[in-house]
Design goal:
4 strands, 16 helices, single chain, 4-stranded mixed beta sheet
Length: 433
């Protein structure tokens, strides 16, 4: 045990003292927030702005098509050929040619463009045209614009209450927390599993492993590496939580001080105050913080982080022991390990849509996918028996996986100069005691 502890210390201290560890620990939260913002921005601004000229023969749609950030309409009083020349010259992206129009008859309109506008732009133009027609038909039926707005107003909201009588997290809040936890575990298992594999590969290719094995057993070396890197991951996670809490406290404190000093009179502070007094926003925040059992979520996150990491780290360590002088050899062995992680991420998206579907339940119980899928389901509420069964299967899976990985590791770590195949690895599993 003393020798394993020395290996753990070496793995841990070697990594946390690196400049790359300090930089990534400080930058990762910024990169994660930036990536989330970029994805959200691109999803909103994914389509470029389009300038569409409109030739309306009957002036039915004139000045009625709604403006948006993506589509800008320009009404022209000219012939189609002149408008098409303007499109070809680049003045407009497209021209919408509308012949004399009858709202009671279905009509196919012509949209001319030099290049394809894309499905989203075409769908939005079609939707804008149909909205004008629908409003015209409703007005013809004697329904005013105010009545149309009243008919379209949302009057129903859903508040989900579990069978136990407690409140489950709101749909969007549960989705956000579940996705965040699952995505973080997906990254952690890939990053730290690969880190264990690279560490084993470096020591084997540099022949350092031969010296270490003369003093410790192969199993002790593998276990020391896995635990050492696990402590590195926990250290980073704790630092991220502390940084998040500190930044949140500073931001909230700054807002409070500004409101106190300026008497909430500046436009910016007044805007912050109005946002804080928004009933819908307050209700949303209360739903996020009150309906979620954050203590249970954090405990289960740590459990599935450690369980999933130990399971995959043992497999990655075994793969690292199979690599000789050519690091490219690891690609054929990493695919069977990486594929379940990718499948788990896909199953996570299914679980977020329907947390109680058959695929979601299976993915949250199967040890190779349960860390990611179960963490995506927990914010929605999971039966206790499923949590207990999932945890038990994950522990059993870790024990079995570590035993198999140890058989591969103790043979592969001292095998040099030979390209190893899956057939040989299978023989090691059944031949070694």
């Amino acid at each position: 045990m003393h020798k394993s502890w020395l290996i753990i210390q070496r793995e841990y201290l070697t990594r946390v003292r690196k400049r790359s560890f300090i930089i990534m620990t400080l930058l990762m939260p910024v990169l994660f927030v930036g990536m989330t913002w970029l994805i959200a921005y691109l999803s909103i601004k994914g389509s470029s702005e389009k300038s569409v000229a409109v030739l309306d023969g009957s002036h039915f749609f004139e000045q009625k098509l709604p403006e948006s950030d993506n589509i800008h309409y320009h009404y022209l009083d000219t012939d189609p050929e002149t408008a098409k020349l303007a499109v070809n010259s680049g003045k407009y992206d497209a021209v919408l040619i509308i012949p004399p129009f009858d709202a009671a008859v279905k009509t196919d309109l012509e949209l001319y463009s030099k290049e394809q506008l894309g499905l989203s732009a075409q769908a939005q133009i079609t939707d804008d045209l149909n909205k004008v027609i629908i409003r015209h038909r409703l007005a013809t039926a004697g329904i005013s614009n105010s009545e149309i707005s009243d008919l379209q107003a949302k009057t129903i909201g859903l508040h989900n209450i579990s069978e136990k009588g407690g409140h489950e997290g709101g749909g969007m809040a549960s989705f956000a927390v579940g996705y965040g936890c699952g995505f973080l575990l997906y990254l952690f298992m890939l990053i730290y599993g690969m880190s264990v594999m690279r560490s084993v590969m470096e020591e084997k290719t540099n022949r350092i492993a031969e010296i270490i094995i003369s003093s410790v057993k192969p199993y002790q070396l593998m276990l020391g590496k896995i635990l050492g890197v696990a402590l590195v991951g926990l250290t980073q996670f704790i630092i991220w939580v502390v940084l998040l809490l500190a930044v949140g406290s500073v931001v909230l404190g700054t807002v409070g001080i500004n409101m106190f000093q300026h008497g909430a009179m500046s436009p910016e502070i007044m805007h912050q105050a109005s946002m804080a007094n928004n009933p819908e926003m307050i209700a949303g925040l209360q739903s996020l913080f009150n309906d979620m059992n954050w203590g249970a979520i954090l405990c289960w996150f740590l459990f599935y982080f450690l369980g999933g990491y130990f399971l995959y780290a043992a497999l990655y360590a075994a793969v690292g022991s199979l690599v000789n002088d050519d690091p490219q050899d690891s690609q054929q062995f990493t695919l069977p390990i990486t594929l379940p992680i990718i499948i788990a991420f896909v199953l996570m998206t299914t679980a977020l849509k329907d947390p109680n579907s058959g695929m979601a339940v299976f993915g949250s119980l199967f040890p190779l996918t349960s860390p990611i899928v179960m963490m995506a389901r927990i914010p929605f509420g999971v039966p206790a028996w499923q949590l207990i069964l999932s945890a038990a299967l994950l522990v059993i899976g870790f024990i079995l996986t570590t035993g198999l990985a140890a058989k591969i590791y103790r043979t592969g770590i001292l095998l040099y100069g030979k390209k190893i195949t899956f057939k040989e690895v299978a023989k090691w599993l059944f031949r070694n005691p």
